[in-house]
Amino acid sequence: MAASWRADPGGPLWRIPGDDTNSTMQNNVFVTGGTGYIGSRLITRLIGRHAVRALVRHGSKKRLPQGAEPLIGNVLDRTTYTSLLTSDSVVVHLVGTPHPSPSKAAEFESIDFVSARECIAAARAANVRHFIYVSVAHPAPIMRAYVDVRVRCEALLRESGLSYTILRPWYVLGPGHRWAYVLVPLYWIWSIMPSKRDTARRLGLVTIEQMLAALSWAVDTAGSVSRILNVPDIRETAAPLAPLGSESLL
Predict the structure, then answer these.
(1) DSSP label at 246?
(2) Mean pLDDT score across all residues of the chain
(3) Which one has a higher pLDDT value, 2 or 175?
(4) For residue 235, with 0-12 CB atoms within 10 Å meaning exposed, 13-18 middle and 19 or more buried, which class applies?
(5) What is the domain range of residue 230?
(6) Is it the case that residue 22 has pLDDT exceeding 90?
(7) What digits encode the pLDDT tens for the residues 195-210?
């Protein structure tokens, strides 16, 4: 399937996933959050196809998947790792508060926002080739502090002048993150209600496999054009790898 594009009123472009001419290029990938829920799994997928380096704290090197080069630094302080970035780097920023909930608003500010702000600033100083950021689907009626931080981080990225890919999942189903399966019947009901259909699509569930496929695609095709992937786009990117019937369930 050929790639298609449409303008986003906010300034960047939305990309509807498809084939890309630079999908076989080996990239110099710099990952933050590489020992986390998504990061460790993504690194495992990227090893062998890309040169992967990951920013870690002292004592965390052994938690990285084998094959990734550990780089010691503090993700909350750009001065500890700006010099580790190069103009050909593809940055994948995956740092975030684990198991986010409304009670963690202070952590969203001190960890999620500060880490993204510092990473974007470091990437801008190094003039990296592309920046990949996992945001959140919005607007949304709940988790407002979390959404607010992610929207502000998106704004920083837009203002940075960097080329980027923003992914906007709502909830990522996977090991230890399965409670939302109980909502599947509700999503089905919403999908047949005209007044709720758009909300059901925007705030739909994605699996960890779909997220990893979309992130891998973002790394493989990182270039000079900025893209935003909402939930339907994340699913479409992963469609060839998704289990039969998974799209209808989510």
Answers:
(1) H
(2) 86
(3) 175
(4) buried
(5) 4-249
(6) no
(7) 777 777 888 899 999 9
Q: Closest Cα partner for 36 from 71, 60, 70?
A: 60
- CA dist., res. 20 & res. 18, Å (int): 6
* CA separation for the pair 182, 185 (Å, rounded): 7
> Which are the contacts of 120, defined by CB distance < 8 A and separation ≥ 6?
93, 131, 153, 156, 157, 160, 162
pLDDT tens-digit map of 35-63: 999 999 999 999 999 999 999 998 899 99
Q: How many domains does the chain have?
A: 1
Q: Are 27 and 240 in contact (CB under 8 A)?
A: no
pLDDT in tens, 63-88: 999 999 999 999 999 999 999 999 99
How many C-alpha atoms does 181 have within 13 Å on its Cβ side? 9
Query: pTM (2 decimals)?
Result: 0.86
Work out the pLDDT band at 8, boundaries 50, 70, 90.
Answer: very low
Specify the CATH number for the domain of residue 110.
3.40.50.720
- The whole-angstrom separation of Cα 179 and Cα 6 is 35
Write down the pLDDT at residue 240.
Answer: 60
Burial of 49 (0-12, 13-18, 19+ CB in 10 A): middle
- CA 19, chain centre distance (Å): 20
The order of strands in the sheet holding 51-56 is: 69-72, 51-56, 28-32, 89-93, 130-134, 164-168, 227-230
- State the Cα–Cα distance between residues 138 and 140, nearest whole angstrom: 5
